[in-house]
Here is the input.
Amino acid sequence: MFEVKKRTLIVALGLFLVLLTACGNNKPKINEKPYEDKQFLMGTYVQMRIYDDGKKAALKPAFKRVKELADKITVNEEGSEIDAVNKEAGVKPVKVTDDMYYLLKEAYKYSQDSKGGFDMAIGPITSLWRIGFPDARKPEQSEIDQALKLVNYHDVEFNDTDKTVYLKEKGMKLDLGAIAKGYITDEVVKVLKENDVTTAIIDLGGNVYVMGHSPRGNQKEDWTVGIQDPNQARNVVLGSVPESNMSLVTSGIYERYLEADGKTYHHLFNPKTGYPFDNDIAGVTIVSKKSIDGDGLSTAVFSMGVKEGMKYVDGLKDTEAIFVTRDDKVYVTSGLKDVFELNKEAGYKMGNDKDLK
Here is the structure.
């Protein structure tokens, strides 16, 4: 089962998607009522809705792709490709499939870009804490100190010719739970496009992709995507943004946690300390063209705090972010300032960028 770190984003339509209300494509081939399916995979509910008339059959290959990739990527089941790489740590390189090699190289890129704030080799730490599983516990400091010696993405070696991956030190472990669902979401988008689907919603337990435009009404307008309040139960919306053909990925500290010694520990770990990140962020949503980018960035900027995270995202092309702080303020990057709508009933206030420290 994947580490489920993304539960704070909802796209509102139907029972738990309650905010997808914009008008859009009025072509006869687009239905207002979608073909849909929901399956429990990767430790979460995967839901897809297809609005193109006559394209119900595309659901089958889309879910097949999810299952195929999930079996390769999970770190919590024997027989996966990641499990094979981890087992040979410090022993020998392991040849992987093209899917896995691409994902690992992308994970390495985000490890570099975030200067280790996101570290693909975080496995020794996440496997110690096990937050989200029945056997979760707070490790002893000595255990954390020992595990931290093995958390170093620089010790992951690639051979582009042979498509092999080698972990240089025994005991190293890759954990791609923070980026894998983004890659799988992008692959589902590819499958749907190959099947001539133009209008759909893909939700992999918080990794949401809105394809095309809303089928309701007479004008071609964006979907309205609701952002979940990280401090409340599911489906409480703190605000919304209009988007089409974009991914929205959210990371938050309240969905999954461990209470120990009178303190709450969330599941987003700092690779430098071995403890959860401790800064002013309660949740962050990344809006990007590719879901894998949103996945990697949501963890990377979480390591930076709001001020540096805002600055980092504002320097990226076709990428925006919504930050929710622990003191109930919301900050959005420059491209969303004119379109983000705050739900005034949620109890949050828009923050002033100049006040950030």
Observations:
- The chain is about 25% helix and 25% strand.
